[in-house]
Amino acid sequence: MYKNIAFNFLIIIATAQLTSGQQNEPHIYVDSLGQVYVKANVPAYLFIEPESNANAKILIPSNDPKTNPMVFDGNGIHYLHTQDAITKQPINFKIYADGIAPKVSIRINKGLLMSSGKRFYVDEGSTAELVAKDNYSGVKSIFVSVDGSEFINSKTLTFDKGNDYRVKAFAIDNVGNIGDTSQFRVISAVNSILKINNIYFDINSNRLRPDSKIELNDFVQVLNEYPEIRIEIRAHTDSQGDAEYNLELSEKRAEAVVNYLIQKGIYDWRLTFKGYGDTMPINECSKGVNCSDEKHQENRRVEFKILPIK
Q1: Which domain covers residue 222, as residue numbers?
Q2: Which of 140, 129, 148 is nearest to 102 (CA)?
Q3: pLDDT given at position 64
């Protein structure tokens, strides 16, 4: 029968520095059950302190320096067979070599409208939790960055304004394995009216530009994930030019988006459209206000609204 480690372990190894500037991570971990985990493929010297002589540190597997350092090559369970230095009785130990880093996912706790893959549509004010899974030594920390900010040690997120959030996250386990950085998009809006980014038209035209179709193809995937959802496509122009012309142009642009979605296999009964012209600017650039083209571009947008399910 294999023992849980009842001795003190010492390990001499090289340490890994996190790119985020956090402190060095240890490469050995003993959990509450006494199970010992080490990082796979890291050279290590292991010592034990016998219960009968706490001051005597005995090198495992022997005092021959040529047998060290040891490398637990590969993920999984490894067994050490050694001998008590005084009683000469055999001692067996079980060590878990952990060579697999945690993987991070995101869970929307409040306000989820729909999602597809790593894209989430949520209400403004929604909250989320980052979740990491590690099958061996367990998760020690999760680090997150939102919209290019510095990575911080945190598991909770709040999307408190209408925005297209870019979330990056990675996790570290208890022996120092650093997981790959996962990326997520969380798109939030007031009253479930959400912007479809990067939808562009030629000037004074309702013809979709090729780069707009990339974003719409992703949107098709979302709609296929939720076949019961009905949506209204809403198009807006900036405040430049004649108001009546802008209203007509926005109507044609909204219809062009709907026609493209239908071509991609979305049933027409799931789609309606409406143009709002220049009547609903999202910034200060209303009629008669002098603004830069970048500011006007914010108002030249396509949105969608989730309609009640029948």
Answers
A1: 197-307
A2: 140
A3: 63
